[in-house]
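Treating backbone geometry as a discrete language has practical consequences that deserve illustration. No coordinates are needed to read the tokens, only the vocabulary itself. For completeness, the protein is quoted in full, as a sequence line and a line of structure tokens:
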Amino acid sequence: MFSMRRYTIYLALAACLLFTLNYFRTELKVASTAIPRIGSIIPTSGPKDDGKSSVEVVVPNGPFRWRDVPTRYPVTSFAAIPTAPPQKLPKVQFDFPIEETHAAATRKVRQAAVRAVFDKCWNAYRKHAWMNDELGPLSGGQKNGFGGWGANLVDNLDNLWIMGFKDQFEDAVKVAMEIDLSTATVDTINVFETTIRHLGGFLACYDLSEDKRCLQKAVEYGEMLYKAFDTPNRMPITRWKPQLSMQAQQVADETVLVAEIGSLTMEFTRLSLLTGDPKYYDAVDRITKEFAKQQTKTKLKGMWPVVVDARKPDFTQDSLFTLGAMSDSLYEYFPKMHALLGGIDPIYERMYNLSMAGAASHNLFRPMTPKNDNILVAGKSRSHHIDDPPDLEPEGQHLVCFAGGMFALGGKLFSNPAHVFIGRQLTDGCIWAYRAMPLGIMPEVFTMLPCPKPDSCDWDEKLWADAVDRIDPRHEQRLPQGFTSITDSRYILRPEAIESIFILYRITGDRGLLDTAWEMFQSITNVTTTPLANAALTDVTWSREELNKGRGIQMDSMESFWMAETLKYFWLIFGEVDVLSLDEWVFNTEAHPFKRRLPAEQGKVIV
């Protein structure tokens, strides 16, 4: 029987872990100056004789290669790489008409402005933090919370290519080949982050440029990350200590964030497709099948809780369900895997349909706003028993703005117009949150008041004020009308809102979204720009007048997703609509584009 006491401990441990690691995908807290490498991941001696380990770790002479590290729990039969002829899927992109001359001119000016911001940030990174993970945009210092493996460099190889910085691309690829995976600046590797940033970055680099060096490096990362799956049940250790893995047996953790174990499929599958090695696809296919097997057994049918047990494995016991932080990309990858594989495996469509039915019924809500806007916000739900109705927690997050694009993409791929409409409402909700704030920038986390009925929601000043007063006096949080609290007032250069706006534009052809994107870009750059690059913000509730009086809100932080994702989506939305067409490419959760498998009759190479 599952112990409620253990369950409480798990939640407490998860909360501590999330707080410590800044669970909204902010950087690990490291010094703003260069950090000496912790040193070699390779153990200096063999494994301790613990009476359990039967495999001796032999470090070969010459260069260290992860593929030479012995496997303790070898796979005897691999799942076959899905190489059946891909299906002709429904068209995703809008049939854009010929663009008028003046509209094209405006669009190109805007795209050039985005490119200039990227160029400035890249040059600052190259000058002050080259080969480090991140640049401090205020201090010019270096940060190395992702292993010291040049996260910002690898994350932006595809941007250098598509934006036309070919000389810088060549230089970056050349030095990226020097990344040494036998050393790291951290002793614990976040398998999820390394997969989406580094492995995904090199795969996209290869898919775009066909530079074989990028595929070679992707294989090196794949070989390393594959070792995190060397457990008795082949479930991965998501916060993985490489040194320990080579010295002793390892087992999957009992407390795992569902997004971290469920969001490795695109990268590992693409690596198998490109190399012909089935082990990568096999590794993630086992996880997918486990999720599918338990999908109807959770406390909110169709969805999975935030925290799961990978050791048993048991994905059913927790009570918190969300499309937001800690769960997000698990759901995002269902329609994207369907697109990546050309629709040949029905499992992803089934998992998408069942999970989104649960989310639409229990997580999405229409908030009460002063102008009765017909928008949606993706909140949280708690369900303590499968037979009890879940309780809605009307919390919005910037991170969950990705959901608008996910619903819209799923709606097109699976011929479900209602989901395209939901995607538009969710995206409009994020646009509303940007415009409601004094600086025109959405905060990280906030709450709103759900409408009593989704089809009728007249503004009620007293009802809103009472809700605010129950939480916290509104003058202390500088709350615009509609928000009942702002629990995290930061803006950390996040991409999710512009990501969904870009996807909705490519799907609907609504040119009004171009003006919305430009409005957002100006609001963001007006406040985040530093002499070197762009900085995250501590508090977006202050007015421009307060900032003009000298109030400082910039932080010495610029995560790699600012350039890799946020600026990429701004650049793409103002670009030609056939560049990285959604009918030919699919983006991973770090905005790295992978080639879709397409039918031969479309004149595309099936890979």
